[in-house]
Amino acid sequence: METTPPHSIDAREDCYPSRVQPEPEFLKRCDPIVYNHEAPGPLSAAQLSQFERDGFLILPAFFPEADIATYKEEIQRLGASDEIQQRPESILEPDHCELRSLFSVHKPEISPCFSEVAADPRIAGMAAQILDDDVYIHQSRVNLKPGFAGKEFYWHSDFETWHVEDGMPRMRAVSCSLLLTENYEFNGPLMLIPGSHCQFVACVGETPDDHYQKSLRRQEYGVPDQDSLARLAEDGGIVNVVGPPGTIVLFDCNTMHGSNGNITPFPRSNLFFVYNSLKNRLVEPFCSKKPRPEFIANRTAVAPLTMRELNVQSHA
Amino acid sequence: METTPPHSIDAREDCYPSRVQPEPEFLKRCDPIVYNHEAPGPLSAAQLSQFERDGFLILPAFFPEADIATYKEEIQRLGASDEIQQRPESILEPDHCELRSLFSVHKPEISPCFSEVAADPRIAGMAAQILDDDVYIHQSRVNLKPGFAGKEFYWHSDFETWHVEDGMPRMRAVSCSLLLTENYEFNGPLMLIPGSHCQFVACVGETPDDHYQKSLRRQEYGVPDQDSLARLAEDGGIVNVVGPPGTIVLFDCNTMHGSNGNITPFPRSNLFFVYNSLKNRLVEPFCSKKPRPEFIANRTAVAPLTMRELNVQSHA
Lengths: 316, 316
Prior knowledge:
The structure is a homodimer.
Chain A: E1 25-28, H1 45-54, E2 56-59, H2 65-79, H3 82-85, E3 90-92, E4 99-103, H4 112-118, H5 121-131, E5 135-145, E6 153-156, H6 158-166, E7 173-179, E8 190-192, E9 199-202, H7 211-215, H8 226-236, E10 239-240, E11 248-252, E12 257-259, E13 268-277
Antiparallel strand pairs in A: 1-9, 2-11, 3-4, 4-5, 5-13, 6-12, 7-11, 7-13, 8-10, 8-12
């Protein structure tokens, strides 16, 4: 457990200014995607290249069914717990009382089960390999998109928010989504824009105080403009992440993504872990507002998952 | 042009009571789906059987690109017209000013172009064949689902509404949707539940006065219950209607359908014609309220499209 972040990069330099200009703008990405193609780890050279090109990698049925059954029981337990729903880490559906997201599920006091999953070398090892560094959990959550009334989540680059509102200096973080239910084409699956991670869409506008309380319920501010989104989607297309329970999708922190609503009877839930490089720890938010809560952006309780501990093996 | 509806069936008998019970209920369909497998027409025996089994038939790229280009120009004209947007036939997006739907596009005074399409023997002939009767346009519209902000349309059987609110006596109508833009898996395509047309889901509740003004913007009343929908979707699955511009989908008046929202940059538009059997003309609404406007449910300006005029040819 460290409390004083050591940074080997100039973390105070704002390479990705956003929400400060009157007009949207494409900025060149000035960070690597795969930090070292020779780094040891579970991913093959072809998988690393695919991740670098597309900004994501889908691994169908990566976790066995028995594990998924355990995780679903854990979610049942969390969803039924009044104590959990009253925690600040719980985000409810707009206009509904159902749990939409629960943050910090990697913490043993919230979920001993998911705490283990977050540190599982099978997934944390892939993140460490891509980022070529020891990692830690920047954010974790379980997302529950109910059947019949699941709301859409508008397009965004996670990094844009993490940079502006949380002070993540550079693009050196990887997200891992673990599908717990079957994701069909029609129940509001994650949509990704291939290649969108190679540019940064600077958004217009300012960050209001306490933005996070609203933005987690419904995106309103700091969203990418329609022209930029149309250009990205015309260039790269859109990929629906579909697959059976246990499927994993790894995606770069700057890959543009979103999801449509879900009127089908089939709910959609997933576990979501963000691994950040230990060299990329948070500084003060670049928007000069007060930082968001720790459960959304971990800045002090950093528990490193070292490459050595993750026992990452060379694929060679 | 006829004004006195002659009915060969007992049109006043309510075979499908809905919105009158405190609990939802599955009722047996008591009408044929394909009225005569030997009727002449453009559809093959295999296509008729598929329509009968699934409740719909998708014909990819049925209309040539040149025709679609003409239709899109016509929509541009209609969408840009202040005069059109101020007509009662225009329905706007909730919270937006954009056109969501325009009704009665089969009328020459609204669109000479779409008036011709509605009477085109290529599609009207298929409807007449399935229903084994002369047909007329019960309802027509163009639907425009914009990019970025297209709203969902919740599950419903059109017949449930047409029966309860418009007084359509029996299930003897076929809808034809003509896709004018590429329908992808991710831009809120029409979703159909195969086999759902074989049962009638009686909804709970009452029909409020002037329901149509709200329901066309956002479904609130007379919707199928979640348990019935879940059972239908578990039995039949869900099919996304995807395809290039010019694709046609024919579906039975009682096939359960809906669509998710559309946050992608790709808009979705289609032409929609409902062909009703001339023997199935509207009577008084079964909910005992005043009838909805003529542009939503054609009860007087019935212009028959006869099998003879449609020049339907036997497939044999």
